[in-house]
Structures are given as structure tokens and as C-alpha cells.
Amino acid sequence: MATASGFAFFLEPKVNGCLKEILTKWCKFLKSKDSNLVLSGWLGDGLNALTVTGNQNGLSIASTYTFTELYQCPNPDDPNTLGFESWDAFFIREFQDGMRPVAEADIVHACESAPLQYPVSNVQLTDHFMGKVQSYSLQNMFHNDPLAKLFVGGTVYQAFLSALSYHRWVCPVDGIIYKVTHVPGTYYSENMFQGFFGGNPDEAAPNNSQPYIASLATRALIYINADNADIGLMCFIAIGMAEVSSCEVNVKVGQHVSRWARSILVAPPIVWYSVQM
Question: Which among 2, 127, 194, 271 has the fewest CB atoms less than 10 Å away?
């Protein structure tokens, strides 16, 4: 991808339009009953990895729950599907009640993600996000929305969500939904300074391009007016990555949301950014 030709190819709007059509059709299949045929693999050889991840606190094992003790499963006695009607239903499975108590902090993690970059302070309206440093550029991240100017000088917290983890996103603060925006963008573009840059191929180039794709990838922006005046207006930005790029928003403008009280996004992307004034 990060060759000169690949860099240009995956930035091309027509290419990304075609990829969107392909991935949209694939998404429909993953929501159909036919897709649960592959669950025997996820719930077979992959079950141990899923269970270990669900029991982790950071890099340490914090508990020894079984998969069905961790997650709500429609039919725990079915070894092939656990009762999930589709792969999508399995992927966005819910935790058992009380499995993840919410911290008392004013801002909490919106999902089971791990910190990637934080805090990145004094972010600018425009910056060189295509460079080796991959700076955050608010105007690009916010898709030229005038609201971007309100966040100049603010702070970005960036996190990464593993495919093995819980895959619903919840509200990180108590507040009111101010605005929701869907931004069409790239799916496989990666930073030119990753991949084959310098003659040393890097298989992790997509993962190393996460700040870069904040300005380019398909994404959903959810602006939240926090109840806490010290937080004020913040923006939750869910960034698509490769084929994991659907952004199904479950909240509406004007709706009051509470920390972890309900999903704000399902079947989500793997990367998220929180931008605070």
C-alpha cells in the first residue's frame, strides 16, 4: 500500500467509492444468518484468545471468567454458534450485567481500547498530518467543519481497539449529543513514511499510520456537550480501518447520554479519537 503507486491509488475517491460498495455488500452478508457458519472457528480455536482478552486488565490477567460468563450469549449450550444468529451479532456481543463497572471519573474509556497517544496537547487547525510525525490537523479531522476552530489548542487522546475485544462503543462522558457527522473517506491508505519507506518493508504499516488516517479515513464524528462545564464541548471520532469501517451511530442530536449507559456506536471501527477543547 505504501509504495508510490499504492499511496496514490488508495487516496483516489473513485477507488474508495468502489471499496465502499464492496464492503457495504460484505456488511450485509455478515448480518445475515448465513454468516454464522464461520463462528465455529471463532468459538473453536479462537475462543481461548477471546476469553483471555476479556479477562485482561491492561497486560495482566485480572479474572478467570469463561466466555459465556463474560458475555451475553443467546444459547450457551450451542457449541457452534452460542445462539448468535449472525457473525455481526457475535462481534457486537454485550457484556454480562455488572461485568464492567463504570469508574467515577468524569471521563471514562468509551470501549475496551488501549491508549496509543495521549495527551497530545495544543493541536492546531491545520498541520502536516502526511509527514513522518503524523501531526493532528483539526480541519482535516473534522472534514472542514467550522466547529474545528473551537478545538484549536485543545487535547487529543487516541486509542486502539483490538479485534479480539468487546466491540461496542459507549459514551465517555455524561452530556447531550450536539451534532453527528458521517465522513466518507479512505479505507486502506497509509502514511508514506511507513511500509516500504527507507527500503525496509514493515508489515505493521497500517497500525503505524493511525494518527495519519484520522484526517482521511471513513469516520463518524459525535459532538457531545458534557454536563461537566470543565469539559465542555468534546468530539468523539470513530475512525474506520480497512474492512472494519462501518459506523452505525445509535444516538440522536439533543439526546442526553450517560457514561457507559448505552451504545453510541456499534459494528464500529478499530480506532477512536477524543478531542477536547
Answer: 127
Segments of the chain scoring below 70 in pLDDT: 2, 194-206, 262-277
Closest CA to 274 of 59, 108, 153: 108
Query: Considering only CA atoms, which of 196, 236, 190 is closest in space to residue 213?
Result: 190
> For 96, which DSSP code?
P
Cα 228 vs. chain centroid, distance in angstroms?
A: 24
Residue 14 near residue 123, CB atoms below 8 Å: no
Residue 108 lies in a domain: yes
pLDDT at 241: 85
Decide if 63 is inside a domain. Answer: no
Q: Determine contact, residues 246/144, Cβ cutoff 8 Å.
A: no
Give me the CATH number covering residue 253: 2.70.70
Q: Which domain holds residue 148?
A: 103-276
In angstroms, rounded to a whole number, what is the distance separating the alpha carbons of residues 119 and 136?
12
Partners of 157 in the β-ladder: 274
Cβ pair 80, 74 in contact under 8 A: no
pLDDT tens-digit map of 232-260: 999 999 888 888 777 788 889 999 998 87
In angstroms, rounded to a whole number, what is the distance separating the alpha carbons of residues 156 and 222? 15
Q: What span, in angstroms and rounded, lies between the C-alpha atoms of 194 and 8? A: 14
Residue 273 cell numbers, joined: 479519537
Distances (CA, A) of 274 to 85, 107, 117, 145, 203: 33, 10, 11, 16, 27
